[in-house]
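Researcher: Please translate sequence to structure tokens.
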Amino acid sequence: MIVARITGFGQTGELSQRFGRELNYVALSGLMPTFAGHSVKRFPYWTPANMLAGFAGGSLMAAFGILAAIHQRIINGGKGSIIDVSMVDGLAYLGSFQTIYKDIDNVWNKPFSWFSGDCPVYRCYETSDGKFMAVAALERRFHTKMLQVLEVNIPVSDIWTKPAEVTEKLEAVFKTKTRREWMEIFRGASPLPFVPVPSYQPASHILSFCQNLFT
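Model: Translation complete:
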């Protein structure tokens, strides 16, 4: 028999009997600042419902463990296994890249760093209709082309030397058109990493081109 046991904080330890939710598990994993970023003004920390610790750190890790146990049972003569999965431990493992990356400050921790949430070329911008476009133009060839398409006449180096000023300019530019208008503009440009941010309900409509993802 193969048994998978999924808990929030693990089978042992002082938190083993404590009730928890996604927010608790993500916080304890140490990854919360990565998901929140420096751009969050009103609420310092947030987490998507169930998707990180529950589905990825818990269910996904349990599925991997079960498959590994099945393989082990085949080669060791039919013995069973107990799979012990902690959502906190699983999520911490998934985020281990963050803890070992040598240039972590310039990637996550410092304001305006790549994945801080407020990097001028890697963030979401509000459009004139109150919707958003997701911009992921980290590479020089992408953000150089981005400035051309947006008709923002600044040196490319300003993105890193004057990030606050560049952000202010880009925010103003994106608010001059609706999300649909920006979608058309970027559809006509070379393939830039710009996509709309759909609200939850119309996601199936906007993403229908992704190999029939929603059917």
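Researcher: Any highlights?
Model: Residues 131 and 179 are 6 Å apart (CA to CA).
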